[in-house]
Amino acid sequence: MTTLTAIRTASVEAPVRRRPRWLIRAGSLLAALLLWQWLTAGDVTLWLRFDRLPTPIEVADQFGRLLRDPVYYVDIAQSLVRILTGFALAAALGIAAGVAVARSWLLADVLQPLFEVLRPIPAIALVPVAILVFPQNEQGIVFITCAAAFFPILVSTRHAVRALPEVWEDAVRTMGGGRLRVLFSVVLPGALPGICGGLSVGMGVSWICVISAEMISGDFGVGYRTWHAYTIVDYPAVIVGMITIGVLGWATAGAVELAGRRATRWLPSRAGVVK
Amino acid sequence: MSGLALRAERVSLGHGAGPVVRELDFDVRPGEVLAVLGASGCGKSTLLRSLAGLLPVVAGRLLADGEPVTGPSPERALMFQDDALLPWRTVRRNVELPLAIRGLDRAARRDRAGLWLDRVGLAHHADRLPAQLSGGMRQRVQLARTLAGEPRAVLMDEPFGALDAQTRGAMQRLLADVLSSTAATVVFVTHDVDEALFVADRVAVLEPGGVRTLVDVPEPRDPATRGTPLVRAARMELLGALGATDPYVRSLSS
């Protein structure tokens, strides 16, 4: 009887308790918007100067206009192609290099010093090199995006592979499994949770870099368009660009996170462990 | 298929500098179950890893059917104490793994894995993940996986060591039952004298200087003989041999 009552009270109480929390969250956002409107519409200058910042209403107007403009979508598509190409290359190279460095002392000795020298250089500092080396701007931007995501993926793969329990590999080898079998049946699936962490971080970093690279040397793309709007003093469009970058970054990071969670459903914390 | 004959000739085992076991000589006859007893740290697991081909010997020769052991082989399967199942594969796909490595097609794999899961009583849990099973069930899956590849020798490294007493008893009976239908040679490492006496045909006591004591088990794998004078005598002999290296066990056996 006691358990029944407990369940019933919990199920009745839960929605009552949840509703005001959503209200509070929505209210917080609304208050921020109102504050923004008040500061900008009133041209407040309290050391910080809000007189040149666009009001939320101006931004919303500009947003509505841009949503009807095909160039807006071309920019988004361009940025997405760049980031997805760079990220996919970084994932393939980073996972391959991470496994190689973790599993072979020879490759570790050959590659590791190189990686350690290059890793501290922020990818965006590679822009001059990219402009010099690549025949087209486009390839340079993809290169910078790829370089940015490569290192977090490499490092997390290396750690995940090194941390694998030896017993899984021993088991497969005593069944007669060779190196390839160990790689595909033990190393890659076993390291996947760690690799997913690296992919998430890598996706975030490569957004920062694709936008920065576009601002410096792009002809299209969300980053280029945002910077361009700033140079022609179209401040509402700058804010729209920032919001677009935020939404796209959030969506791509969410997609990576979701894919990772799907691929690692077997983890004890997600499999519904029965003891 | 017949069991593998295993032989050690003046073998030293260990990792480089200080061998754990020196000058080891023994024979495992095809199809027999040899239990290896010994205090912890005496090199029982090292011996198994070397027999499996995962660890090269420091000196001497290890032979399987007269051929030197140079690396792992599906003929010599190793069963571990715990957590050797691949946690991202379902029970069925874990048992199918050795069959996939042997190159069986999908349908044959499924049939064979189903058969073995049935034999260890887990047919209804085929689609579960290892983390969703109890420790005893996981070891049953591992037993099925080890035997599904039809190895000619099964090397078991304290396979029931992490289980509670009741589950362990059930697993010993299951093992005896399953082994009766295979011709595989078994080397069974344990630190439990009674487990050794129930499971094995012969029991060896491993010491740093090699195997000094070898006891034939009267009426192996017959629960009815537990506690009969012959088995009691074998038990005392084994405890005595273990006690030669372990003062605590010596105090128990005297």
Written account of the structure:
The complex is a heterodimer of chains A (275) and B (254). The radius of gyration of chain A is 25 Å and the shape is globular. Chain A has ten helices and two strands; from the N terminus they run αββααααααααα. Chain A has a single domain (59-263), classed as Orthogonal Bundle (MetI-like fold). Chain A is an all-alpha fold and 275 residues long. Mean pLDDT of chain A is 87; it is low at 1-13. In chain A, helix 3 runs parallel beside helix 6, helix 5 (127-133) crosses helix 6 (137-162) and helix 8 runs parallel beside helix 9. Chain B has 254 residues and is α/β, with parallel strands linked by helices. Chain B has two domains: 1-75 and 157-254, P-loop containing nucleotide triphosphate hydrolases (Rossmann fold, 3-Layer(aba) Sandwich); 85-150, no CATH class. Chain B has helices at residues 44-52, 91-101, 106-119, 135-148, 165-179, 193-199, 229-243, 247-253, and strands at residues 6-13, 21-28, 33-37, 59-64, 67-68, 76-79, 153-157, 185-189, 202-207, 210-216. In chain B, the strands form two sheets. Chain B has a six-stranded mixed β-sheet with strand order 6-7-8-3-9-10, with helices on both faces. In chain B, strands 2-1-4-5 form a four-stranded antiparallel β-sheet, covered by helices on one side. In chain B, a hairpin with a 2-residue loop joins strand 4 and strand 5. In chain B, helix 4 (135-148) runs parallel beside helix 5 (165-179). The radius of gyration of chain B is 18 Å and the shape is globular. The relative contact order of chain B is 0.18. The interface between A and B is medium-sized, with 26 and 28 residues. Chain B: It holds the Pfam family ABC_tran. Chain B: Keywords: ATP-binding, Nucleotide-binding, Transport. Chain B: This is Nitrate ABC transporter, ATP-binding protein. Chain B: It comes from Actinoplanes cyaneus. Chain B: GO terms for molecular function: ATP binding; ATP hydrolysis activity. Chain A: Residues 76-256 form the ABC transmembrane type-1 domain.
